[in-house]
Amino acid sequence: MKVLGIETSCDETSAAVVTGEPGEGAAAHLDSCVILSQDVHAVYQGIVPELASRAHLAAVGPVTDRALADAGLAPRDVDLVAVTAGPGLAGALLVGVSYAKGFALAAGRPLIGIHHLEGHLFGTALDDPDAVPPFVGLIVSGGHTLLLDVEAWGRYRLLGSTRDDAVGEAFDKVGALLGLGFPGGPKVEREASHGDPGRYRFPRPMLHGGQRPSDTEYLDVSMSGLKTALVHAVKAAGDLAGERAHLARGFQDAVIDVLTAKVVRAVELTGRSRVVLGGGVACNKALAAALGAALAEAGASLHVPSPRLSTDNAAMIARAALFRAGEAGPAVDADPQLPFPGLTAHGAPRTAHP
Ligand code: KG4
Ligand code: ZN
Questions:
Q1: 27 DSSP assignment
Q2: What is the Å distance from ligand 1's center to 328 Cα?
Q3: Residue 10 near ligand 1, beta carbon < 6 Å
Q4: Which domains, and CATH codes, for the chain?
Q5: Helices (DSSP H) in the chain: which residue ranges?
Q6: Ligand 1 nearest atom to the CA of residue 278, by list position
Q7: Residue 352 banded pLDDT, cuts 50, 70, 90
Q8: Quick count: other Cβ atoms within 10 Å of Cβ 50?
Q9: Global pTM?
Q10: Fewer Cβ close by (within 10 Å): the C or N end of the chain?
């Protein structure tokens, strides 16, 4: 089965073709993937939804044509059309969903709407055949921070999430604070790589002694106290030129410590032996290195997608659609608040694995 995926939920216009058998545990091959990142938002230091929609409108047709051409396919060779239906920016989602509906109708093929975050869980499996359930999933992007127990595809238990900013959002805000431009994540990482780890010691929010698995803070994260500490440190530093790298390093080290501790706790609680990373922050090499080392000590393996499958892309949407192929139908609508399918909320027992 050949699946055409289309993703326009935020500021990347992407189309991809994936080949595989529909259903559970299906291995899949990535035939093509085209990602066009919108750079217009850099001027405004953040994503401007109306500009995102307009850029998607101009790009979605050519990007899809390119993905099909790269895979050597005509529209009628596609068996299933998959599109991100939510969550995301309303106008941006609408462009992708409308285009996908038109494409499916013209080609006479079924259409399926995919949840963007479920897509992130599937992305790594395209690179790494071992990134399959059961695993602990950590999705860290510009809009979301989710720690999940993935018992099987389609069966997700929420272990922890952010109380305020998403991790990528915090990187972006700190990037702006340090005068690095948008998006901040890659730039903060670059600065941090030559910063002195001993110069600033920022708080590790929601990571203090004596926490127990029954505490609601045990697996949740928070970025606000850390951000405030950065604001004060930037003010105190005065001239940023000499301090920027050290501040970036202090911030990144704090984020890495918190995420690493929470993921190790999640592994201990669930007894899973694999952790799958997803979302734009998965591009952060320092995070992956620290997580990988801590997990090796805890007896678990870390599976990190390549950068193009970490940030938003349509390949992960097409891959998730193989699993959900049986649910294809005409009623696909853009929904900025789309509920995560198969997600059990907090509150399920957090017992240690025998
Ligand atoms: O998954 P993604 O492309 O879009 C969303 O769904 O939000 O993630 C984008 C986020 C941005 O906040 C960006 O700053 C962050 O991922 N990011 C990084 C790095 N590369 C991208 N954060 C930290 N380190 C990086 N190397
Ligand atoms: Zn995303």
A1: -
A2: 30
A3: yes
A4: 2-120+310-344 (3.30.420.40), 133-304 (3.30.420.40)
A5: 49-70, 90-107, 116-127, 167-177, 184-192, 224-237, 244-270, 285-297, 307-310, 315-323
A6: 1
A7: very low
A8: 10
A9: 0.95
A10: C
